[in-house]
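User: Can you model how pyridoxal-5'-phosphate sits in this protein?
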Amino acid sequence: MSGAQDRIPVMVPWLGEEEAQAAAEAVRSGWVAQGPRVAAFEQAFAERVGAAHGVAVSSCTTALHLSLVALGLGPGDEVVVPSLSFIATANAVRYVGAEPVFADVDLATGNLTAETIAAVRGERTRAVVLVHQGGVPADVEAVRKACAQWDVAIVEDAACAIGATVAGGPVGAGALLAAWSFHPRKVITTGEGGMVTTDDAEVAARLRRLREHGMNASAAERHASRTPVLEQYLEVGFNYRMTDIQAAVGLVQLGKLDEVVGRRRALAARYDALLAAELPRLRPVRDPAHGTTTFQSYWVLPEDGWPEGRDAVLAGLAEAGISARRGIMAAHLEPAYADHPHADLPVTERITRDSLILPLFHTMTEQQQDRVVEALAREAPR
Ligand SMILES: Cc1ncc(COP(=O)(O)O)c(C=O)c1O
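Assistant: Here's the modeled complex, given as structure tokens:
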């Protein structure tokens, strides 16, 4: 029986002395709100994901909201989203008064495809939020081609996909708008935090205004000016800023990105080998043909369901001191969307019912991994 001490968590962010120092330096500098460190983080991050501009914000949820505002979406517009996503994806559409239209996903990747989008697209469809679920890249080339024909804009929800690749480049490259998350469950973290990336300088300038109350001059610019700057508020904006303390941590984390993704991928490959030997009826998530995942989430799906149901397996693992998680949620099954009409979503419902996310974190040991697989073998179909 495992004690509380050796409980295996589902995720542990890889933070150390360097991040602590960087945060302390930001505090000592006296400038703790959005300032030079945010600007440096934006530039480094955008470069890393192959975009021209980065606009740091308070979360991926606010990044999605601002992206939809920037597209000019509002009441009467429809936005196709996967129901199979963290609920923030659908909620962001509601924030601008538009209607989320749930599309089904591909069984192997958990992502929308050009076909599943086409199945629900209507006259009023103005945009798609294309999620790279759990870090698995969606087939952006195929979806961009289809959406260009329909004149439908794409916002990429890349919350989990920092460091993923698609079509031979980083996820984010060539995106009209991509939204990212630095929550501690994600690949790299700033505590809370997010970013929008885009190649369009005018859109980036508007996003910068929108995150700061619609102001035409940032607090940092006013501080740096030798003459008084009388700012104007050009439109109704928000306070969605990131702090310089967070950005200082983000800069250090970004420097570790390759190592973090490499380690996650190595641990995933080891899980693959252990599961193939012990539990061949469990299908682990893997790289699609068009790219590579970050394994932000390592989920398994049994070929024919769990004998006692997935939640019994979760309980069995918890009993053995292992924090697994139910797989990705489905928004259309939540009370918040109970009255929301939707098409049939059989693949979404299968994945959300049966998938299970196993612990995976940078400092995970082989011994811990073995314990997870042993405990799973006691619960899972062979
Ligand atoms: C696909 C997806 N989109 C958006 C979010 C929201 O991110 P944040 O917590 O940074 O707002 C998450 C977080 O889990 C997510 O997984």
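A couple of observations from the model: The two ends are 24 Å apart (CA to CA). Residues 1-5 have pLDDT under 50 and may be disordered.
User: Helpful, thanks.
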